[in-house]
Give the backbone structure.
Amino acid sequence: MNNNHGFIIYLLSVLAAMIIWVAPWPEFMQFIMPDWILLVLIYWCLAIPERVGIVNAWFVGLLTDVLTGRLLGQYALTYAVVCYPSLKLHKRLRHFPLLQQGMFIFSSLLLSQLLVFWIENIHSPTRFHLSFWLPALTGTVCWPVVFMLLRKLRYSYRIT
Amino acid sequence: MVLLSLVMLATEQRSQRLAGLRSFLSVLVYPIQYLVGVPGNVSDQVFDTFSSYQSLREENRALKQQQLLDKARLLKFAALEKENIRLRALLENSFKLGEQVLIAELLSVNLAPYEHVVLVNKGSRFGVHSKQPVLDATGVVGQVIRTNPLSSEIMLITDPNHAIPVQVNRNGLRTIAVGSGQLNRLNLPFLPNNADIKPGDLLITSGLGGTFPQGYPVAKVDAFYPQPDKPFAAIYATPTAQLDKSHELLIVWSDSNPIPLLQPTPDTNTDTDTDTESTQTHTNE
């Protein structure tokens, strides 16, 4: 409805995702922590693609870089690249059943993990455990929750 | 956008040119990092408010006793320190002293999995700079790797990318302790199978490398496995610092001017050799 109104909700949801992302969790949770920020971004890319664009995702990524102390541009690149297909395919994806959507989300998250993996390897080549790839899986499991929650939020504030 | 981020990645990998941008953005995200810790802080404060007078008095008494003990111990240390300086002067060895500390509080922020990097609430505003050693009450914690105006990032000694030069307190054997990625373990991968080291040995900083001041406890050796088929033994140690428990950390400024020798001689040996080596050179002379 209101342009400003929707944007504030969008920013608040990203903020909430950032807080959850950096909050101190027990050790086993750290390894399976899905990338909440990316999930939220993908949702908004599907819901209001005309307002949430690549540039937006890029800036959110840049803030995430500083927040988590990565090389500047790591998450910026990742989020921009991953949001591109969901922006392009948003019309089709909206009509997919949740399972099919889940497969798309899984491949997106896998792509993001792969990019992060490459960039971190340039920065500091350490041995990565196989569980590095777990967040892609848990992220897919969490997607329906994020989807339902944000859709509820969007409907209750009538953001279109 | 992709190109821009690639360029940024490349520049930051190689140079410090983006430090300004990062510090600007870090001020933007600081509220988020602060917000994360708020529930914990509030619950601490509530607990403090409602804890009974009796228990506070108990705690106060215990702390006073502890302080008295520590003071007595410090008295002895002062005398020992003076004596040490005199002895070192006799050995023509300079000794760094006069370290200044700043207490920084941990922000309860978890930066990335697989990395042991923590965030504290003192930054370049307080004069913190990178490569400063960080201690807690029981040992070496790590070093500052990056400073923002309001916060700074500290890499713990157990990070897989961190290595610290250490020395066995018992016999002065020097080696390097490498982080293992587990909070309670350091690896000593560069000691031969016949090295004079055994479980229970205390490892202290050797002062080589210049980042860490000499003589602070780092870890206790807890396992020594000789590997006859390999050149080096497998040795594991547990950090003495309470890496997962301490809330306040000490950021250290070591004074760059070494204490002058008592009798300055023309051929002053400026190397920070260990005691054993300098005595050896003397006997050779």
Summary: DSSP finds eight helices and no strands in chain A.
